[in-house]
């Protein structure tokens, strides 16, 4: 991989540090300057670098109310201003700093002690500057512990030329007291620290491209180490393992650092640190007794080296092209705490519209309205559920998005109405490159408003090449673009403004190419010296660019109706904060088994980084998957939060109804399985939207103390449901080994076979023929499903529920179910159903069981829905009332010790039931579970009830 010059400089600095035993960071805090800031909550201090004693830096350290530490450093009175707005785009709000911290300023350091047990300590050491977070006296996170901090200050070519040429490099540091010595030694020391060459300081070429770098060197390097934490996760997007392999040090797995620079990469590698379409600079460091994290709010290209000096400790080195230092330390100490801390900063994932969790059928391209209609017809003829049909770029005349190609789509609104007739939706692509032509009102308006990205001269609109041919790009950093962009999505005329009248409120949006992709630009993107609003260069804001576009599109979709409805916008490019609005997918994957497998890991990494609504192209974007591969790919997609099939324009049609038997029926079965499990997905999304806990949970999240689970990234849990899945991503598989982390029973979802994780941490062999997916229910879970096949998910609204009560080895179980109208924001006014389902023995030794349903929202009104506390929640809310008649039609109890003597709703008559004697959850063997099937207990899903299973 080609490393950028600033990355080479940062890595060379690190190599010099490694080679020099006396290496010491030149950055020190001027202890006399340490002061409480006027806001009375943060500490500020002047920082000096002995390399450039005339350059001033300012440090700002604060501790937020939730214990997160924010460390900022910027150059003061420099000849230019460093980009300092990344956090303002990523953060939800300005976080509140805590007033409850016990700060002490001493001669050598500044200390803060906090936490409910006063067990957390932050130490800012002055000479050299180092920031350490400790818990119970143990180091957790250390900034600049290895002295790799370097903020290249702004300088001019002339000033550099005037300074003396480098001298011999001394072994040790130098003394600034002797003014005569300073000049000489400072020069040698500069070389010792910064290196002797001006590698790419003023200009850099990338194939035929020259980056003019008018600001000169301005990169930022910092080491962030995690003593006592042997595993690292996060920093998507990379096609790699979840447990990040090393890039430096002995036996480094990769030779290049992880790169974050949003890019449209053609045929990306399935095992690489190369940058892909999105970047979320958040990392978890994990060990059996602690999880901590960092979020580095930087928007420029960033490279991250990872090394593991010992199995119990990890080092990272972050090298960014520009920007201020703005690092948030997430103190944990559990994975759930880190999720809460990170999403407290950047927001929790939005609760999607319910239909968006159904199956999406896409292809580049459905070529006409009649094509769309016939695809819909074929799905219906084959009884395959689907919620959304997608249109790629060929719907748009000359790739002028919003403008229908009337030759092929003569009746777009009627076509959409035909899709809506079965309660389905359309998603239509809108890319950010605007065709530069006078007959395109969208481009014309953007140009007239002056909201297009500028060339490096800062005056003329930048022109590049994309699908549309010659194009310009709206600059969404410019607030003047916001209302204009939103107005485009109105489905009714508002004033003289051009709006998308040929769409309906069921037309949702796909934002692609928003890295941005520019076919004739460097690395298929925009020149870095392009100018955005505020005079910032593109290099400063690059990784945020895509997020602004899709987040704004989401807001446009929310706002186009009154009352507002939840949006659906799929984005290819993303950043920290994208989770507040939309969904993402892993871009142009290949139709290979390797890509299928790494897609699972990439979706998990996104979940770790706060962005749960993620998936990969089912089938693989490129290529023509054989039927076996396609079936397996549906098995992967059905267990991803976002489930969409997509294919390149040159591929053969591969809609699932085109498959021969038995493949067609297998895919139909998988689609129906997904639909039956929508209550589980939706309930998991509710939790994510409130707590920040991810929808997909790898082992280290679900079982943070179980070391053997830390590297596992091919099986995972869905929310808190207790479902454990291991999608098959290899050819010719007939069985799979599944890791069970605990001494507990796990039931095969389909065969009801009991597996046991005893002794804790055991691999079990689960059947995985082509018609099977390893899917286990953790003992102790209650799984709500809806099992009536329907054409689309809204048609399931009043369908009855099945409950699978999977008893744990002690004979109990618990589950949750969340429902609301699935498309508006009335849930925030308390229009919800949030139930707690439980199964308990009335007494410890009893063989009887009480299965109950209770109103969880009544118990936890402040935790029911995202963003608001339901102060006036009522179980008889309008939505709940509309669901009164929705009943539980079947309850399956797995693992009962013996055949019951009676089963009845408390106080009611005997119910109809059947019992198959298998083995009990409390037995020690493996085999088919005992199963009690209660038929139609006639209890409502919204009311409290108790069913007594008497022994
Ligand atoms: C690139 C996207 O990644 C792909 O999904 C899409 O089909 C093409 N652009 C055409 O719009």
From TrEMBL:
GO terms for biological process: carbohydrate metabolic process; N-glycan processing. Residues 692-783 form the Glycosyl hydrolase family 31 C-terminal domain. Belongs to the glycosyl hydrolase 31 family. InterPro entries: Gal_mutarotase_sf_dom (IPR011013), GH (IPR017853), Glyco_hydro_31_C (IPR048395), Glyco_hydro_31_N_dom (IPR025887), Glyco_hydro_31_TIM (IPR000322), Glyco_hydro_b (IPR013780). Keywords: Endoplasmic reticulum, Glycoprotein, Glycosidase, Hydrolase, Signal. The keyword DNA-binding does not apply. Residues 349-684 form the Glycoside hydrolase family 31 TIM barrel domain. GO terms for cellular component: glucosidase II complex. One of its GO terms (molecular function) is alpha-glucosidase activity. Residues 59-305 form the Glycoside hydrolase family 31 N-terminal domain. This is Glucosidase II subunit alpha. It is found in: Endoplasmic reticulum. Its main location: endoplasmic reticulum. Pathway: Glycan metabolism; N-glycan metabolism. It comes from the Eukaryota. It comes from Grifola frondosa.
